[in-house]
Specification:
The chain has 2 domains: 66 residues, no CATH class; 48 residues. The protein is 28% helix and 13% strand.
Amino acid sequence: MTLDHPPLTHDERKAAEAAFQDRPFNPLWSHKAQRIYDGIRAAQANRQANSQGSTVGLSPPSTNPSVPFHLHYSESAPFIPRIAQVWILEYQDTKERRLEVCPGATSIEQLLKVFRQRAHGRSFTIQMVDVASMSLPSASLSSYSHDARQIDQDGFLA
């Protein structure tokens, strides 16, 4: 027997076992392990919904046969919010302002070191943000997330 795909890694196998045994997802596992976990949970939810004639946790069936339903966030691997620091960085020469989001454990010294490198000798000030709400221009947005999943307005994974 030949496999069309490489064998599962250790964390992918652990994610599959956890999903089948109804245990929580470990956020330290890889993104692929998360997809395996979510896929198994979705298949289990679909099988349960089909056997009970229920649609709890599921959106209406799609017209696309490869996408029979959307998984609700509560049925997927847990979303683990990460603590972050948010700063407004303002360059003194142009008054350009940037919103900088950094890991929560980053020291002020490390932040200043990174900001100085980006500034290339330009003077700047930083101000901590406690609460903010703003629109984000998509053309200039640069971001990174360990968790690429998105939740739509109804709570389903997009």
